[in-house]
Design brief:
The protein is an alpha/beta fold. The chain has helices spanning about 35-45, 45-70, 95-100, 105-115, 130-135, 155-170, 185-195, 225, 245, 260-265, 290-300, 310-330, 340, 350-365, 395-405, and strands spanning about 5, 15, 90, 135-140, 150, 210, 230-235, 255, 280-285, 305, 365-370, 425. The chain is about 40% helix and about 10% strand. Belongs to the glycosyltransferase 29 family.
Amino acid sequence: MPKIVSFAQDGSATHSFEIRGIYYWSSLAIIPSNHFVDFMAQIKTSVRPLFSILLLTVFAVTLSFRIVVHGGLFSPFDPHDRFLLQPKVVFNSTLLKYAAIDVAEDKSKQEIEQLLEGNFANHGRLRTFATWRKFHHDIRPRSSSSLPVMLRSPMFYRYWLDFRRNLNNWARKKRFQADVMNELVTLFKHPIDRYNGLNGSDKKYGSCAVVGNSGILLKKNHGELIDSHEMVIRLNNARTERYEQNVGSKTSVSFVNSNILHLCARRAGCFCHPYGPTVPMIMYVCQAVHFMDYTMCNVSHKAPLLVTDPRFDMLCARIVKYYSLKRFVEETGKSLDEWGSAHDGSMFHYSSGMQAVMLALGICDKVSIFGYGKSASAKHHYHTNQKTELRLHDYEAEYAFYQDMMENPRAIPFISDNFKIPPVVIYH
């Protein structure tokens, strides 16, 4: 009998069973009344075994038919049918409620309002980069007791209107929408196809490889397998030179966070990824002020420079936070209110790798994942000397998400039931 898995308010699992019955109606024979008593006496000893045999026969025929149809004798097995074999999940409403809370929302809205008004004074982090120096000049007065005057260059006003329009449009779309996964083909595949001279078909890519940056890649020679995929997505400018045997050489899309583009803006033409100027770039926005970098770079970038839809960003944020909250309660037994102090509160964020996987789920028929995971003997990134993880990510929670993605997609919250997750394979 099928088992239904649910979660109590404290996060513990409960189990119940649903009993389904099969009923068969036998036809009634018309028997003359004068022979009825004799007839009933004759069948008393035979009707039960005959009925049992009939019931078993019908059951066997029904089961055989289901196996033949769904097992692939007449048609291939649809990977989406695996949803029918999975137990229905009842999500913990408390976890869903906490996961939907964006701790940094008020601060983000305030920053966006300041930027739309032209107030960059509270975003001093830009002063250390070329973006700030291009737009502002310090005028030092002769008197040391006077404060320096900050003047904007003419270049600032050249980009100001575009910056304000881009930021305003992005902010207006920033809301939760569960079925945004069904729009990813239109949002990302269509513009990339048009750039490549195609018509922008609604048909998804046949196969996609998402290549992470974990040092575990150096232990396997997956290069040829990675390059065999129709679409290869790489993360945050991880170079392939000298690592082709392990990570491959083909790159279809460079997926980055806006901190990477912020560094790119320091270079002429804003080109900084190692895959060549014709490779499209997709990025998610970490800080609203980075739209100035996007505005500048979008003018000179040869290949498409796409920003992820904020509705997609919010979906990813809620999923990761749900898994992080669930893991926190199960492992520590502490209150959900204490989760923020353990994960930097407003700084908590999904990783670039997680959102790249989510992107692949929406635009690909099959998804292969490489370079996700860690090992005590491996570097954090295969191409750098970084060994420690960033505290603002909860990688263990993301690994739990990947596990459900492969084995029980119905256990993933917030995604619309109208979207079916394609087959996923993780290569360790």
